[in-house]
Specification:
With 186 residues, the chain is of the alpha+beta class. The chain contains 5 helices and 4 strands; from the N terminus they run H-H-H-E-E-H-E-E-H. A hairpin with a 3-residue loop joins strand 1 and strand 2. 12% of the residues are buried.
């Protein structure tokens, strides 16, 4: 049937039908094989790019985690040197005696700060009255101690109205301590 149809066509029509058949075959090959392959390749390149970005973020987070883990280990080591009887309140009293300002303490109030899974922040609010700049400097020098994880969190210094050569200082001092066992279980 196709052969008889083909034989009835003149050579010009045969060339036209052959060209159309070749065009249809090429279009089918493009539609069935080439275009889906190119589309899949683009999707794959996009997926690779997205995964590379995620991998870079994971590497960044891993690096940050390792840094934080090292800092936590250093804090645990420093806290372990405190001993179980360490309190920021008594430690500050010793430092005030050392700086010769213990008699100038107007008040000292202990409070709890933030808490993590392993540590709790201990805070002491204190006010020193009628002190000189040198006495304040000495007290700050003795108090701020990175080895003991003690730092001055806030400070407000005012001249005394009655005696301008003296100062009044309000401080908030913090330290990290290991979290007590009963808090860890909660």
């Amino acid at each position: 049937m196709i052969k008889t149809f083909w034989n009835k066509l003149d050579s010009k029509q045969q060339k036209l039908v052959a060209g159309a058949a070749i065009f249809v075959c090429i279009a089918l090959i493009l539609e069935i094989a080439i275009f889906p392959f190119m589309e899949a390749q683009k999707k794959l390149e996009k997926a690779i790019s997205a995964h590379q970005k995620k991998l870079a973020q994971i590497n960044e987070l891993s690096s940050e985690f390792n840094t934080l883990e090292a800092k936590t280990a250093a804090i645990k080591k420093a806290v372990s040197t405190h001993g179980t009887d360490f309190t920021l309140f008594s430690w500050l009293e010793k430092k005030a005696t050392q700086a010769k300002v213990r008699g100038r303490i107007k008040y000292m109030n202990s409070s709890k700060g933030t808490r993590s899974s392993s540590f709790e922040e201990s805070l002491v609010d204190m006010k020193l009255d009628t002190i000189t700049i040198k006495q304040l400097n000495d007290f700050l020098y003795y108090t701020e101690s990175p080895e003991d994880l003690v730092r001055i969190k806030k400070i407000a210094i005012n001249k005394m109205k009655e005696s301008p050569e003296y100062l009044s200082a309000q401080l908030q001092i913090s330290s990290l301590q290991p979290l007590h066992q009963e808090y860890r279980q909660r």
